[in-house]
């Protein structure tokens, strides 16, 4: 499951960089970049970086089973849903999709609340068996 988070993060960064290059083409051609394009670009970039971080945080905190599945699914849905509705809703003119921002944002919030729950209820602050073998900080 953490492979899904990391892969989604790296794919999201590649898409975000591609959109950034397109924005550069628009600017160098003398055109402006629409605000909706900038907003989707920024959200996808930040959420993709956090997806990669989550890919390391989930095993470091020992999140397993249904909670692990929920964290992964909810986060990936929100990571792509938020910039997707900005690009489709504003950019493509499908305003009908805009209210789903509450759904995608809710997915991200639920994912973070699950991680919060695991963090505060886990005795010992995690397994300490992350990728480097160093214990996780407990501060």
UniProtKB/TrEMBL annotation:
It comes from the Archaea. Keywords: Membrane, Transmembrane, Transmembrane helix. Residues 1-139 form the DUF8059 domain. The chain crosses the membrane at residues 7-26, 38-58, 70-89, 101-120. The keyword Membrane applies. InterPro entries: DUF8059 (IPR058372). This is DUF8059 domain-containing protein.
């Amino acid at each position: 499951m953490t492979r899904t988070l990391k892969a989604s993060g790296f794919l999201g960064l590649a898409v975000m960089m591609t959109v950034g290059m397109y924005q550069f083409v628009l600017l160098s051609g003398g055109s402006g970049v629409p605000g909706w394009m900038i907003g989707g670009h920024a959200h996808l970039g930040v959420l993709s970086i956090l997806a990669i971080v989550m890919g390391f945080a989930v095993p470091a905190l020992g999140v397993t089973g249904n909670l692990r599945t929920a964290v992964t699914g909810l986060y990936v849905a929100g990571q792509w849903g938020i910039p997707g509705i900005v690009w489709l809703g504003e950019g493509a003119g499908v305003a009908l999709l805009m209210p789903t921002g509450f759904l995608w944002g809710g997915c991200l919030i639920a994912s973070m609340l699950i991680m919060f729950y695991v963090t505060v209820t886990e005795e010992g602050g995690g397994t300490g068996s992350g990728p480097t073998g160093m214990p996780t900080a407990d501060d």
